[in-house]
Amino acid sequence: MTIATKPETTRPIPMAAMATTAPSNREHRRRMIGLGVLVSAQFVVMLDTSIVNVALPSIQADLALSSAGLSWIINAYVLTFGGLLLLFGRVADLLGRRRMFIAGSALFTVGTLLAATAVNEWMLVGGRIIQGAGAAALSPAAMSLLMLNFPGDRRARAMSLWGAASAVGGATGVLAGGVLTGTFGWSSVFLVTVPASLAAVVLARRVLDDTPHGARRRFDAPGAVTITAAVLALVDGALGAADRGLGSPSVLIALVASAALLGAFIAIERHTIDPLVPLELFRSRVLSTGVGLAALGGAARASTFVLIALYLQKALNMSPEHAGLAMVPTSITGFIVNLVLLPKALRAIGPRRSLVVGLLILAAGHLWLAYAPTAHGYPVAVLPGLLLVASGVALSFTPTTMVIVSVAPETHTGLASGLASSATQVGAALGTAAFTAIALTAGNGFTAAFTGAAAVALATAVLGCSIVRR
């Protein structure tokens, strides 16, 4: 007997479900575009810190620059970027992070175009100053927006992409700068970042959400001027120490002035109704320790790549081109670790343990570079150390910022991001100056410099252990 069955029909999807699914897909697409905008902006900021270096000889020949003028092309960007991070991070909290991100991206584009079309030294230095100011405005705002737009489980993936952009951006600049300068001229190293910056200006308002900023308050102008001057003096002293030595009168004056200005800033903040940096934030042991981790970690990480570049050329007698190619494994390793291992580490052990593990791996890489015999050449003396260093940087850089920003009140995420970035920049400047001087002046200098960097990384890991349980 055959049992008749009704022909199978397709059940219609309820209109309510369709209405829910479509906006959900659109919302996911919008968030992914927003993530791309933020990550691209960070990539551009980090790219610009290194891409100009390779073009310096061409710029000097074309514009007939003096040695002092040549150094200002680099230092103008570093000084402005490091000096204004804290100020602009707080302004983002008060005026709106998305608004500050858009303004910073626009300012960065203006500076880039001015630098690309420069016909003399002052146009180029002016463009670099504007670029640095734009980067200081957009970077803490971007980090704050990332934390706010990607809460919960999505934050680990977003932060890993952010870290990958930071790691790859700096390394890519070295390679891209040489190719672009040789093919299209030095102006191209500036123009290559313009499309991403313009896209950020156009898309940010459409794809990024921002929490309502607080009620307008009086702006702490004395505090802003004092802390900005203190950071500028400190970074200037660190940069001067690398060029002229720590005992130079101008370096000592800059460092003493920075300490005095910092003391004045603390006094101002204690008696201001609406302080730029509420000192009660530092009652959080995790946040205050995190700022120390950022500074020490910046010294241990940033000095690494400068030391390795010098080591390859002076100890292994590589040409600049071959030294650049020898650094490629750091970019590849950093990218893979950030995208594959870091998200798993953040979910499994959290950012605090991740940064401690990363710092221990970084120290191991430094020690390998310090004591591996150069007679065995690049594959044995350098490559394993490079891989360890790149992995350690990837596992410790982003989690340090996450620790600082995640414990700050939501109304102060921009300020917290500025604190993290500013501490990292200052630490990087001081570490690079100190360890470069050791490498070039001490007997058996590279061994001493890499050992010193390893000691700083280990000390930072010990400091990180103090907040793991908390």
Describe the structure.
This protein is mainly α. The chain folds into three domains: 29-209, MFS general substrate transporter like domains (Growth Hormone, Chain: A), CATH 1.20.1250.20; 220-275; 278-470, Up-down Bundle (Growth Hormone, Chain: A), CATH 1.20.1250. The protein contains 18 helices and no strands. The chain starts with 14 loop residues before the first helix and ends in a 5-residue tail after the last helix. Residues 34-470 form the Major facilitator superfamily (MFS) profile domain. It is found in: Cell membrane. InterPro entries: MFS (IPR011701), MFS_dom (IPR020846), MFS_trans_sf (IPR036259). The chain crosses the membrane at residues 33-56, 68-88, 100-123, 129-148, 160-180, 186-204, 224-242, 248-268, 289-312, 324-342, 354-371, 383-407, 419-440, 446-468.
Summarize the structure.
This protein is mainly α and 470 residues long. It folds into three domains: 29-209, Growth Hormone, Chain: A (Up-down Bundle), CATH 1.20.1250.20; 220-275; 278-470, Up-down Bundle (Growth Hormone, Chain: A).
Features:
3 domains, mainly alpha, globular, disordered N terminus, 81% helix
How many individual helices? 18
Which shape, going by the Cα principal axes?
globular
What do the pLDDT scores average to?
82
Please give the CATH architecture of the largest domain: Up-down Bundle
Helix content: over 70%
Q: Pairing-aware structural class of the strands and helices?
A: mainly alpha
CATH superfamily of the largest domain: MFS general substrate transporter like domains
Order of helices and strands: HHHHHHHHHHHHHHHHHH
Task: Report low-confidence residues grouped into runs of 5 or more.
Answer: 1-22
**Count of distinct strands:** 0
CATH class of the largest domain: Mainly Alpha
Task: Give the oligomeric state.
Answer: single chain
CATH topology name of the largest domain, in short, is Growth Hormone, Chain: A
Number of domains: 3
User: What value does the Rg take, in angstroms?
Assistant: 24 Å
InterPro entries: MFS (IPR011701), MFS_dom (IPR020846), MFS_trans_sf (IPR036259)
Subcellular location: Cell membrane
Domain Major facilitator superfamily (MFS) profile: 34-470
Protein name: DHA2 family efflux MFS transporter permease subunit
